[in-house]
Each structure stands twice: as C-alpha cells, then as structure tokens.
Amino acid sequence: MLKYILKRLGQTLLILIGVSLIIYFLVRLMPIDFVLTKVQAMNQKGSLSEEDIRMIYESYGLGDNSFFGIVKGYVVWLFDAVTGNFGKSFLYGIPVVQVISKYMGTSFAIAAIAIVFEYLIAIPLGVTAATHQYSIRDYAVTVFVMVGISLPSFFFGQILKKFFGVGGGWLEWFPIGGTIDANSSATGLLDIADRLYHMALPIMVMVVLSIGGTMRYMRTNMLEVLNSDYIRTARAKGLSETKVIYKHAFRNTMIPIVTMLAGVIPSLFSGAMITEQVFDIEGIGNIALKAMNAGDIPFIMGYNVFLALLSVIGVLLSDLMYAIVDPRVKLY
C-alpha cells in the first residue's frame, strides 16, 4: 500500500501542475481586468500617461499579456507557490493564504454540519425506499428528494427566508443574514450557539438540496445487495427480515457510502457561493465569487489550486478507504 500511495502522490503532483497551468492561462485571459478597473478609476481626469499605466500593470506582475508573457508569469507564480507564497490578493490587499484561512472556517462549519444531517436523513430514506420498492412510501420519498434536487439554491433560500426569516418572514424563527448579531458580545458556548442559530437556514438549504443524490445512491445500492445470492440464502435459513436488512444487507451497502465520505473533502472547504450570497455570509465561497468578479488573479489561483489539491487527496482517500472497508479490493 505504501508503494501505491507514493505512486499516487507522484501522479497528484503532475495533476496539480497541469491544473494550475490551465487555470492560470484561463484567469489571465478573463475579460475582467482588476488593474484596468483601478487605472480607469485613477485616470478619470486623464492625468495618467501610457508609461504610468504600464508601470501600474508591471507592479501587479501583469506587464506582458502575450503568450510568452503569460508563460513567464506562470513560471514565476509556480516557483513562488512551491515555497508557499501564493501572492497578495489584489482585492483584499493581504496574502492569499490569509484570506483563505480567515474565511474558510465559516464555510467549513456550515458544510460539515450540513453533510452530517444529509447522511443522517438520506441513508434511512434510501433504505426505506429500497425495502418498500414501488410502494407508496418509495414513491413519496422519491418525489420529496426529486423536488429538493430540482429547486435552485437561491430560490429555495428565498422561500425559507419568507417562511422563517426574522424581520419579514411569516414565522420569524431564524435570522436571514450574517453569522452573528452585530451588537453581540457573547463568548464561549453562547457565541457558538449564536453562530449556529444564524447558520440554521443556510444549513437547511444545503441539506434539502443535497440529500436527493445520496438517497438515490443508497437506494440503488440497497436494491442491488437485496438481490444478491447471500441475502436469498439468509432468508432461506429463516432469518427475520430485520436481521437480513440491517445486519447483512446494510453492512455491505455502507461500503460505497464510506468511500463517498472521503470525496466530500473539497466541498467542506470550497464554500457554497450562491447560498452564502443569499444569506449574506462571509464564507470562502462568497469571498471567492467577489474575487472572481473583480479579476483577482492571485486569489483565484490560490483558491482553485487549493480545491484541486483537496480533490486529488479526496480521490486518494476514497481509494484507500474502499480497500480498507472491503478486503477483496487490492491496490496496485
């Protein structure tokens, strides 16, 4: 397994270099130009000369926008990135690493809680739908999750704000924006409780919109296992249906679900751009969207390479976990 891990890590390095190269070229070719916007704001009276504008571009490392200039810029960025220096964000004026670490915690908390509830709800729904195939229960669960899959996050978020939002909603149960009261001085457990209270609606959005895929996956796996020979043998031996389902079938159904957990690593840190915007949450997703709209090249590069790294790590962990939970799988 050690040999396999080292081999995959070497492949990961090549993948990251390739991904970063593609992202860098795409970012440099974006129609949005942060420096141009700044120059236009500074040059309202036409006081800047062509030389002044060229020097401003060069101060941001964007003086040459030709093909070879972009290649040179990528090489400079790559050597800096290897040392952990992803540059300073154009928009936020601080190192990219600091921006990510500052806003990632909120997004991570929301995503982690949402994933826990997603699995707690989706797995039982998938099991009950599979064990009552083509029944009213199966159709009801399927319709419920399909509605959740079909709803856009911004639309469902606005519905929840209308129903439950404080200050205009019908029930006025939960805050509709931010992660903490502006005048709050709570600390410790009270501060955590206040933050969770503000996160209730965005978590609800993410859970409802995500349980559909997991539920359908669980239902399909359970149906496949229930039709296996060893399940028919267990029933023929006179075991109760409860033991057949929850002792034999459920254990094997959980194998692919366990491997899926490693694949959710990127989603824990990437943030939910639209949901965070709807509820005015200063999470990493919302911050990344603002940086993208502003053409903040250093942040876009650092953020996307960070997600690419998490993705390849997640895939590697999925493979390793599959081999751990299912000894029949061999890694080479």
Architecture overview:
This protein has helices at 2-28, 34-42, 50-59, 67-82, 96-131, 136-150, 153-164, 188-226, 229-236, 241-263, 265-270, 273-278, 284-294, 297-325. With 332 residues, the chain is mainly alpha-helical. It folds into 2 domains: 2-82, no CATH class; 100-325, Orthogonal Bundle (MetI-like fold).
Summarize the structure.
With 332 residues, this protein is mostly helical. Helices cover 74% and strands 0% of the residues.
The total domain count is: 2
CATH superfamily of the largest domain: MetI-like
Would you identify the regions where 5 or more consecutive residues have pLDDT less than 50? none
Number of strands: 0
- Which CATH architecture of the largest domain? Orthogonal Bundle
* Helix/strand structural class: mainly alpha
Q: State the helix count.
A: 14
Order of helices and strands: HHHHHHHHHHHHHH
Morphology call: globular
Defining key terms:
MetI-like fold, 2 domains
Question: Topology of this structure?
Answer:
Blueprint: H1 2-28, H2 34-42, H3 50-59, H4 67-82, H5 96-131, H6 136-150, H7 153-164, H8 188-226, H9 229-236, H10 241-263, H11 265-270, H12 273-278, H13 284-294, H14 297-325
Helix pairs in contact: 1-4, 1-14, 5-6, 5-8, 5-14, 6-8, 7-8, 8-10, 10-14
